[in-house]
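Bumping with the actual sequence this time:
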Amino acid sequence: PILMICPTPEQSRRVHERICAWNSDTELILRFSETESLPYERLVTDSETAQQRINVLSKLSDFEGNQSPLVVCSVTALCQGSITKEVLHKSTRTISKGDKISLSDLAQHILQMGYSIEPTTSANGEASRRGGGIMDIFPTGSEFPFRIELWGDEINSIRVFDPYSQRSLEKVSSMKVCPAIETLPAMIPREELDVSFSRIDLSNCSLDERGKIRVEIDLILEGSMFDDIGLYSGILNRGTLTDYLPKDTMVLLYRPTDIS
């Protein structure tokens, strides 16, 4: 396993593209991208970037001992916090044919994973319900969405389908659903959240901002999501890329002087 660290995001993109061009097995060559929003900024995190980062971490979690991934990243991406391994494993769900489920419970779970419930499912991180026994889910990292059909409370079939034509492409026996965003308060133990938020000092904030932050903290403690939740990523995202790498990973520095 190799971690290749580059000085800038642009250099990491170029290096990743060149390595992929010269290697036939690109499944093992990953680029961990950087998010543009910083902790404690009121910016909505780009969902595509968040899903790309989660997809890389999920793949690293699934690699077996005989596989050696090569991960390319910038210094910025390496330093940024992300979802912890514990939260990723806790929130990731495998859904199989024959499982007995409640679509209402499943919808609630994927909402806590950062998915949005839409009228139709056309992009990663979206889901929709069709009638009483059908749910469409477009998982993070998947090329196509999946349609779950129930017979009673049992999954009768899982189909991959084209989001534009709505035609079924193939039947599968199971599907994996990873989180859609990196900040998942509902998956973090309440005790940890209480300790973290008890340390926040709002004495220098205006009354309006103080009130707004307290409302948002209450929402986080309830496990609820909101647009500005990235403001609290510095508190909630305690994982790093290196947590997901094997202990025998070789670290390569591309232009170490520039990295310094």
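The tokens above came from a reply further down the thread. The two ends are 23 Å apart (CA to CA).
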